[in-house]
Predict the structure.
Amino acid sequence: MMRHLLSAGDLTRDDALVILDTAEELAAVADRPIKKLPTLRGRTVVNLFYEDSTRTRISFEAAAKRLSADVINFSAKGSSVSKGESLKDTALTLEAMGADAVVVRHGSSGAPHRLAHSGWIRGSVVNAGDGTHEHPTQALLDAFTMRRRLNAGPHGEGAVGTDLAGRRVTIVGDVLHSRVARSNVLLLRTLGAEVTLVAPPTLLPVGVEGWPCSTSYDLDGELDKSDVVMMLRVQQERMGAAFFPSAREYSRRYGLDTRRVAQLPDHAIVMHPGPMNRGMEIAAEVADSARSTIVEQVTNGVSVRMAVLYLLLSGSSDPEVAQ
Ligand code: CP
């Protein structure tokens, strides 16, 4: 396992399968009366969040605590960052406190790379979302969820050792501003899936032709061949200009409603990384339907983040015996 997790594109197929298989093993901890392993006792994980988060921050905290690590939560709001303290000085402060891993979310693309390669900290850096660039642990938990649902074993667990070869994943919406889309395209390709990005032309990034996926402007044309439809949030907070005529028009062309869900194959699942704009990119009935994995994705996020922290911080291949 590498020292940092910065990009889904850094993971080989074997790396990704080790993380998914380890997460599968660690998911069993959640079913125990005491949801804890001693694996990372004495290690310190810092959650360094410069941008808002609900799911990622809470699940990294739960993951670290389930592995018995000490956790320090740092939010830029209310810290000395608001007095102008730099990323470097914040990093040096965390280093002085003995951080073994820094989980960082930042509004600037590349901030986790800067932390990892600056020499300011010695510990592992995990990218928890940087600008519009990447969100590798989201892609891992999405792949874990797809594997569990599509390659399910008798108890609903993902088939250990398997990838997503030949699965067709349609990612829909605001690709331009989505770090989730970029990380998913990179990881899903590594795992053998075929990815199609569907968006209005204004919400596809320049250079998308070079990504390992296909693109379309026509959602209806993709539905009957999709194993997975992943809806993306329309990130209005990152939009300085109008990218589509109106919310109503966007929903009509690119929203997932019950009429569109009826065109999916019976086994197909509906995903969304959250937070959702209910009624815009996804209808409430669809978000709450049996095909939706949205709540499951959050649960799976804890297991996957446990696996990432465990593999980065511990030398053992068996989380039950590592000390
Ligand atoms: N999916 C995701 O990253 O959600 P949060 O912004 O709530 O962490």
In short: The beta strands are 44-49, 70-75, 101-106, 124-130, 168-172, 194-198, 214-216, 228-231, 269-271. The domain at 8-134+298-314 is CATH 3.40.50.1370 (Rossmann fold).
